[in-house]
Amino acid sequence: MLKREFLNIIWLAILLLLNSLTNLKVNAKLSENKITSDDLRQIKQNLVVLINESRSSLGLKPVALDVLASKVGELHCKEMLEENYFSHWNREGLKPYMRYSRAGGKDAIIENLSFSQGGSYYDTVERLTNILKEMHLRMFNETPPNDGHRQAIIYPYNTHVGIGIAFDEGRVKLAQEFICRYVEIMPLSSQAKAGSLIDMAGNILNPKEYELAGISIFYEPSPQTLTREELNNRGSYSLPETETILRPIVYGDIFYSDGSKGEIEYKKSNGKFYCQIAFPKDRKGVYTIVVWLKKDKEKFQATNISIDVS
Asked: How far apart are the two ends of the chain, measured CA to CA in Å?
């Protein structure tokens, strides 16, 4: 009886040793094939090249890699991977333009997200690059009416893009944060008090080509923490419907259709503009400021600046 127990102990020791040796081999392989931060930077640059090839095929201008937007996308991808969800909202209930604003961004932003799972993407640069390429082309090759990702990629007013990537043994999350950079906004606080006024000043970077169409302030309630189930059940995102519109001041005998003269001081010659934005006393939440520019008769968003009003 003692001999049998002794043999069992010996066999258990042998199995533990073999398992330990196997783990050492696996860990050595993972270490050997580890994707470095330099590799990731190059992968991101390669993705920008691919995005620009997609845009060039339609005669569109290229976009440049943006550092801040990349950080925003990267943080979101890491949270999605760690918390095991897939959504444009994060756990705090923040939409892409809110996350970008909190990070210090002021430009207009359009977010594309994609994911892949069930393979081995972590061990070589080639495998990770190939799956990311497939993910981009899957979005670019969408067809109407379900082509929202494609429309973001080929939006003609995009100037920059942030690339966020997070991955583990069998999952990859990808964020493309497209940026429209056409105005410079003077420093603005990301927080304000209900009932207060803030000064907003800025200038159009190319006033000869673009002019100010107006400024919209969109209101929505303060975000709430979301569960994993709530996040996974949410689809596309958008600005809210509640909107206040400010217009450039007109002079002389000119009036707007409602009889007003406008609220924004604007010099078309140099592109400078200024206005005051009021936050109602009885409505706390998030106010997102959208500066609208126009070229000929076409309008587009140049900012998505979210301010938390308490």
From this structure: 76
8 Å CB contact between 36 and 133: no
Helix axes of 37-56 and 125-140: crossing angle, nearest 10 degrees: 30
**How many degrees, rounded to 5, is the angle at CA 195 between CA 192 and CA 197?**
65
Give the C-alpha separation, 194 to 70, whole Å.
32
Which regions of the chain are under pLDDT 70?
A: 1-33, 120-122
pLDDT at 120: 67
User: Which of 35, 209, 189 minimizes the C-alpha distance to 123?
Assistant: 35
Strands (E) across 88-234 are located at: 108-117, 160-167, 171-180, 183-185, 191-192, 197-204, 211-220
In single-letter form, the type of residue at position 212 comes to L
The pTM for the full model equals 0.87
Signed CA dihedral, 185, 190, 191, 194: sign only: positive
CB atoms within 10 A of CB 261: 13
What is the token pair recorded at 13?
């020791």
Residue that the structure tokens 């007013």 belong to: 157
Are 303 and 181 contacting, i.e. CB atoms less than 8 angstroms apart?
A: no
Cis peptide before 207 (omega within 30 of 0): no
Q: What pLDDT is stored for residue 121 in this prediction?
A: 62
Angstrom distance (rounded) from CA 134 to CA 260: 53
Q: What is the DSSP string of 7-50?
A: HHHHHHHHHHHHHHHHHHHHHHHHHHTPPPHHHHHHHHHHHHHH
d(Cα 50, Cα 174) in Å, to the nearest integer?
A: 14
The C-alpha atoms of residue 22 and residue 38 are separated, in whole angstroms, by 29
